[in-house]
Specification:
Strand order of the largest sheet: 3-2-1-4-5-6-7
Number of helices: 12
Bound molecules: NADP nicotinamide-adenine-dinucleotide phosphate
Shape: globular
Number of strands: 7
Largest sheet: 7 strands, parallel
Radius of gyration: 21 Å
Distance between the termini: 51 Å
Length: about 325
């Protein structure tokens, strides 16, 4: 009996592996639109797809980002400005892409643009802190996806949504985890609904990587703003040592786990665009595979205890 189980498992793994390695033969007629190409993963992905022969349509937030990407790539790569929180800006980008792709339609949409700050204890947040992050990471992704669906259906294309391990395990307060959980849900429903039209949807869940999103100075600066604007009563309940201790622990952890090798993430994005059978989910980075993802399957109380042990404790705690 166990021998049969082992044999079936090995056969399943071999079939999965061979299927996963099958790639599309040519990218020359394939158009891919990427948001957030100024820096980080989006910037690297745009350059790499350009080298591979894709028609890259790179969405940048700033003119400076667009200019420097254009200078570093072939004339085949084209840039446009897009702010994913602005409906008019999205509409203009869709019209521009429609003209660029012509009859071919859009083969790939990579929803990469994202922001993180402020991240910190939930009680320190104001509602606008959630709205600001979700405007980009949640409603930006949803509005951009909906707007591009006709062009994606035309090409039987793919959507690649950049979530995070923090879309599986809520490790801190603020809009970031909430926004990434919503992307997981949106992507799952989009994948099921678009199945009938041949549009595939993949989710990339990176661990922690060294980019502007994980920049310690900006994380600390936005956290300090929250701390400085807190009511004296709330501040007293945490105690004056809490803020420096929190920053110290956060910096210590981030310095250990942030991986400088961004290609671990762009490799997943590329696979989702090049493979004959893109995966539903990609875990990018060792911390994602061996720490965050397994932890997300543990009973919640174990993760609660681990985080409560690692993070500093408020001065006026009751336990
Ligand atoms: N780094 C990590 O550890 C990590 C882990 C998991 C998931 N992620 C996700 O990966 C994605 C890329 O982030 P990254 O790490 O590469 O950081 P990044 O370098 O800051 O990239 C984010 C990009 O989004 C752009 N952007 C910000 N607001 C925008 C808006 N309203 N409209 C259009 N573009 C906007 C930024 O433009 P500017 O540079 O001009 O501001 C930047 O180019 C994000 O979705 C992030 O949540 C990152």
């Amino acid at each position: 009996m166990w021998l049969y189980v082992l044999l079936v498992s090995c056969l399943w793994a071999a079939v999965w592996y061979l299927r996963d390695r099958q790639m599309l033969s040519s990218f020359k007629d394939k158009y891919v639109f990427i948001t957030g190409c100024d820096t980080g993963f989006g910037n690297m992905l745009a350059k790499r797809l350009d080298k591979k022969g894709f028609h890259v349509l790179a969405g940048c937030l700033t003119l400076k980002g667009a200019d420097s990407l254009q200078r570093a790539t072939s004339p085949n790569l084209r840039t446009t400005l897009i702010d994913v929180t602005n409906s008019e800006s999205i509409r203009k980008a869709v019209e521009w892409v429609r003209t660029e792709v012509g009859e071919k339609g859009l083969f790939g949409l990579v929803n990469n643009a994202g922001v993180a700050n402020p991240i910190g204890p939930t009680e320190w947040m104001r509602i606008d802190d959630y709205r600001k992050v979700m405007a980009v990471n949640t409603f930006g992704v949803i509005e951009v996806s909906l707007a591009f669906l006709p062009l994606l259906k035309q090409a039987r294309g793919r959507v690649v949504n950049i979530s995070s391990v923090l879309g599986r395990l809520s490790g801190n307060g603020g809009g970031y985890c909430v926004s990434k959980y919503t992307i997981e849900a949106f992507s799952d429903s989009l994948r099921r609904d678009m199945y009938h039209f041949g549009v595939k949807v993949s989710i990339v869940e990176p661990g922690f990587f060294k980019t502007a999103v994980t920049n310690l100075e900006s994380i600390e600066a936005s956290l300090r703003q929250l701390w400085d604007h807190m009511t004296p009563e709330t501040r007293r309940s945490y105690g004056e040592d809490f803020f420096p201790n929190y920053v110290k622990v956060q910096n210590f952890i981030m310095n250990i786990i942030c991986d400088p090798d961004l290609s671990k993430v762009t490799n997943c994005m590329e696979h989702a665009l090049q493979a004959k059978h893109p995966r539903t989910r990609y875990s990018a980075g060792w911390d994602a595979k061996f720490l965050w993802l397994p932890a997300s399957y543990l009973p919640a109380f174990i993760v609660d205890i681990a985080l409560a042990t690692i993070l500093p404790k408020p001065a006026h705690r009751v336990r």
